[in-house]
Known about the structure:
By secondary structure, the protein is of the alpha/beta class. The protein has nine helices and ten strands. It has a domain at 2-93 and 169-253: P-loop containing nucleotide triphosphate hydrolases (Rossmann fold, 3-Layer(aba) Sandwich). The chain is 35% helix and 24% strand. The strands form two sheets. It has a six-stranded mixed beta sheet, with helices on both faces. The longest helix is centred in the last third of the chain and has 18 residues, at 182-199.
Amino acid sequence: MLKIEHLQKTFHPGTINENKIFKDLNLTVEDGDFVTVIGSNGAGKSTMLNTVAGSIIPDGGSIVLNGKDITTMHEVKRAKYIGHVFQDPMMGTAPNMWIMENLALAYRRGNKHTLKWGMPKGEELELYKTQLAKLGLGLEDRLTTKVGLLSGGQRQAITLLMATIKKPELLLLDEHTAALDPKTAAVVLEISDKIVKEHNLTTLMVTHNMQNAIDYGNRLIMMHEGAVVFDVRGEEKKKLTVEQLLHKFNELETF
């Protein structure tokens, strides 16, 4: 379970550029929830994910993940529990390293680092091949290809696999298909959904695509001015239409 309580965050306080993102953000995500997050620009969607991931430290409030208070925990330590995939396919991987080497780094995330480095082999290598084969992109036969030579979609699929190869307690998908063409974005979304369901991952996915927000996950939240203003799940969520969501957006903008 993820529990965000009374979260507060202001950027550039006391200056002409002061920007109060969160005044009192509250959100509880149950174990196994796949939550799609929508909202206008500046609503606080990505800031919320980055605060949970640890790249932004809040001014007040608390973030608790499965009973652990991670509010002020260093981002590197949180990486043991949290998988994070960004909008830019260039982030999250080492472009000059092989696919196999990138996966090895992700597989060892959270372990104590030593000066000893060995190439993956045996059961570990077979694990990589099996997981890559599930992506359906033929990458299991390209283990020694440098990640920088892959297409944006292939690279984002590798990033997804790296974020989930050691089942995280929480998966954060921050507009992770926004930089891809529509056809590739659809493929990466299907891969994402497959991975989330296979491992029953608790997931937060930020998206600007209303139809994707409806089609994926079991729960949808809408954010506005740093707060959750709409929260729907289950059958009620499935019955939503893009027109209904756009109407809610318009209501907020004219409020």
